[in-house]
Amino acid sequence: MQNIKPHFEFTKQQRNGIFLLIILIVIFQCIYFFVDFFREDISVNKEELVVFIKEIDSLKLVELESRKPKIYPFNPNYITDFKGSTLGMTNHEIDRLLAYRKQDKWINSTKQFQEVTKVSDSLLKAISPYFKFPKWINNSKTKIIQNYKASKAFSEKQDLNKVTAQELQKISGIGKVLSSRIIKFRNKFKEGFIADIQLQDVYGLTPELIKKIISQFTVQTPRKIKKININTSGVDELVTIQHIDYDLAHYIVEQRQLREGYKSLDELAKVKGFPLNKIDIIKLYLSLD
What we know:
This protein is an all-alpha fold. The protein has helices spanning 12-34, 46-67, 81-87, 91-102, 110-117, 121-127, 141-147, 165-168, 176-186, 207-216, 235-238, 246-259, 279-282, and strands spanning 158-159, 217-218, 228-229, 286-287.
């Protein structure tokens, strides 16, 4: 057993061989990592490269153009904050337009649009081709004046509760469909309208059209109604009023108890879920005592 050599005991010759093998491995590794056997000189055709780059750039421009939001014809009178910003208008320019419209004034030409908003010539040139004004604007000035007669005095106006659909159609913007809707809505009530403001409930009538109608017509023989006392009425009574459902009626009664009675009908605006755009119509049916 003593004559058996350990497994890891080498002779001098074996050690020299192992050392030489390690040196060779290191040399080959260095050659592998630091010597490029596949290097070849690459020639570039500069003219073709320039043409290729131009094609890439043109494709990029086409892609960017396709991503731009498309502009469709629109009436500049109805430009909103969002619409104005997408067109490139500044906040001041948009505010000038909105302030002008709040006065119930209309923009009827590209020149007038620039006068009101004070947009630059370059922006106007870019967006004005998309302006689409109502057809009546293209008519003669005389016809426009005829369409917009000055508001008559109360005694000169026709009774809205007796007017016919044909008479309503004399108003610019009121055709067969809208005039029929007005008459149909009026006839839902036995004696017609209580007040002019009920025109707001006719589907399709804009504030501008309503203004035109009441400049020539008005309720001269209002429907007689028995008003409901807001401070004593119950839920079942309140729901008989237009635009008031059971939920809103409960909130009205609840708010009345908290306030210990309403002092003004305008206090209804504080009621949860109250339709503020219909408050003037609802007030027609209510009283405080």
